[in-house]
Write a structure and sequence with these properties.
Strand content: 15-25%
Number of helices: 10
Structural class: alpha/beta
Radius of gyration: 20 Å
Family: Belongs to the ABC transporter superfamily.
Shape: globular
Low-confidence stretches: none
GO biological process, one term: transmembrane transport
Strand order of the largest sheet: 6-7-8-3-9-10-12-11
Number of strands: 12
Largest sheet: 8 strands, mixed
CATH superfamily of the largest domain: P-loop containing nucleotide triphosphate hydrolases
Number of domains: 2
Order of helices and strands: EEEHEEHEHHHHEHEHEEHHEE
CATH class of the largest domain: Alpha Beta
Mean pLDDT: 90
CATH architecture of the largest domain: 3-Layer(aba) Sandwich
Membrane topology: Peripheral membrane protein
CATH topology of the largest domain: Rossmann fold
InterPro entries: AAA+_ATPase (IPR003593), ABC_Ni/Peptide_Import (IPR050388), ABC_transporter-like_ATP-bd (IPR003439), ABC_transporter-like_CS (IPR017871), Oligopep_ABC_C (IPR013563), P-loop_NTPase (IPR027417)
Distance between the termini: 30 Å
Domain ABC transporter: 6-252
Length: 320
């Protein structure tokens, strides 16, 4: 069994009274892909930003541990986190223009990223940047290094961002919905590249998304978030075939391809609660057809083998 690279223990990240992440725990092994899924506002991105140390005020990690390679990095200084980011851990953002400077050439940005962590010549750093562009499938990498971000298509810009994340062959990468704004063809190409790169470099990856189809193709395990908590987790094939939590089942049923032609699209009724006013019991209870008085009490995390769920009325039936 591969060694654990990252272990998150009871992580709590609050923005004042808003509990954006409320007691999240999971681990990621070397070479493993974890899919972190849920609706917008469920806490997925804040979890990623918390791990990599990019939560800005008024956001604060108020509790828990983030153990990376055996060390709790919640206790690390800002300088120590800057040394980790980019070299041993990296993040790929949803919008590549959050990473790329529009007024600097690609070679300038990639060379600076290399030299920020290693004492190498500009020539060697440029060669590494060229190789990284080639690795993610960008043709004519020498020529493209001299281009500006606006001279790339959206898909190519995202490939550049992935190349930057891979410059130091990090142990761990967080990808925050990096293919959401891309068309299906480009999305498929980038997913194929990520699968290949994870396999080649034995890199651990958290893929944050609301797209279950992407998770089914890419991830080894899945963790479903709702209102700042993980409500279900386990091997991706098991969870998608036989969800235990009604929220997970609702997400799966909401996928348009599961509907028969001519039927109305299925959806989860109601709205997610505000993380500033979470109920005492199950946060999903107001939207759940299986809820009763028991759900108004605090719901523990139930474990059965590799599966975990947070529901007192789990779904027993096999879903296909």
């Amino acid at each position: 069994m591969n060694a654990t690279v990252l272990e998150v223990r009871d992580l709590r990240t609050h923005f004042g009274q808003a509990k954006a992440v409320d007691g999240v725990s999971f681990s990621v092994a070397r070479g493993e892909v974890l899919g972190l899924v849920g609706e917008s506002g469920s806490g997925k991105s804040v979890t990623g930003f918390s791990i990599i140390g990019l939560v800005d005020p008024p956001g604060t990690i108020v509790g828990g541990q983030i153990v990376f390679d055996g060390r709790d990095i919640t206790r690390s200084s800002r300088e120590e986190m800057r040394a980790l980011r980019g070299r041993r851990m990296a993040m790929i953002f949803q919008d590549p223009m959050m990473t790329l400077n529009p007024v600097l050439r690609i070679d300038t940005q990639m060379i600076e990223a290399v030299q920020a962590h290693e004492n190498v010549s500009r020539t060697d750093a440029r060669a590494r940047a060229r190789d990284a562009l080639g690795m993610v499938g960008i043709p004519s990498p020498d020529e493209r290094l001299q281009a500006y971000p606006h001279q790339f298509s959206g898909g190519m810009r995202q490939r550049v961002v992935i190349a930057i994340a891979l410059l130091h062959q990090p142990d761990f990468i967080i990808a925050d919905e990096p293919t959401t704004a891309l068309d299906v063809t480009i999305q498929a190409q980038i997913l194929a590249e990520m699968q290949k790169l994870v396999a080649q470099n034995n890199t651990s990856l958290i893929w944050i998304t609301h797209d279950l189809a992407v998770v089914s193709r890419l991830a080894d395990r899945i963790a479903v978030m709702y209102a700042g908590r993980i409500v279900e987790s386990g091997p991706v094939s098991d969870v998608l075939a036989r969800p235990l939590h009604p929220y997970t089942a609702g997400l799966i049923d909401s996928v348009p391809s599961r509907n028969q032609r001519g039927e109305r699209l299925r959806q989860i009724p109601g709205m997610a609660p505000s993380v500033a006013r979470l109920p005492t019991g199950c946060a999903f209870a107001p939207r759940c057809p299986r809820a009763d008085a028991v759900c108004a009490q605090a719901v523990p995390l139930f474990a059965a083998g590799p599966r975990e769920h947070r529901c007192v009325h789990p779904l027993p039936e096999l879903r296909v």
